[in-house]
Amino acid sequence: MSSRIKIPRTTPLRGEKFYEGKAKILYRTADKKLVIQYFKDDATAFNAQKRGTIVDKGVMNNEISSLIFRYLEKNGVKTHFVEKLSDREMLVRSLEIVPVEVVVRNIVAGSLSKRMGIPEGETLKRPIVEYYYKKDELGDPPINRDHALVFGLATGKELDKIDKAALKVNKLLVRLFKSVGIKLVDFKLEFGRHKNKILLGDEITPDGCRLWDAKTNEKMDKDRFRRDLGKIEESYQEVLRRVTEKLGKKKG
Ligand code: 5GP
Predict the structure, then answer these.
(1) Which residues line ligand 1 (CB under 6 A)?
(2) Which of 34, 58, 113, 195 has a CA that sits 20 to 30 A from residue 231's CA?
């Protein structure tokens, strides 16, 4: 037996809860620059008018998000991800959230379908990047670059970085999901400031992405909950299974 003493990796202790959202709770840690993101099973839709629970969603979303953040980091995207701590906990860098939700679209669906009067399913000739003002009380209304600038939500430089990162994430995710037989229809991203850098934050899961099976076009995301389509848990499980098969199960 080796006589060398192994120093155990210290896991940051969960401190005070400082934010609870619809799907996640944030806790402080002893390190001001690190935060624990806890994934809940609660599901909401239509600005929280519809509420429910998806069994083990938190566990599945933590794992899906961890795998995807690692994949993005490996491919040069700066994210808040540090490591997965437990079934439902992810250690992340603390962010000052930019109150602009960024949606990237590849195929017409959801609110774009309604707004343009075009049926769901039409492939766009190039991806569309949209901004929404992150404000629950207002139901996250759509805004443009000028609104974000004039109302001081972000600087021009920050928006340039955000657009570039969003399109890069889109390229990487389209490729990843395509390789496991899934069409990436659209998705929502959030960004934040950390030590003068813009990092990708929040989560990347079937809660905030539209994912359609490439062969059957079957929905594999939160639209199953929003539209009462059933087989919600099974669909999230299937996304997790395919992403895990591709990206592998690694610790940390
Ligand atoms: P839409 O504008 O069509 O309703 O949504 C576009 C995409 O962004 C969808 O993939 C949807 O899941 C995601 N999205 C938009 N707003 C939110 C939100 O507030 N929360 C979550 N989880 N996803 C959102």
Answers:
(1) 101, 103, 109-112, 140, 186-188, 207-210, 222
(2) 113
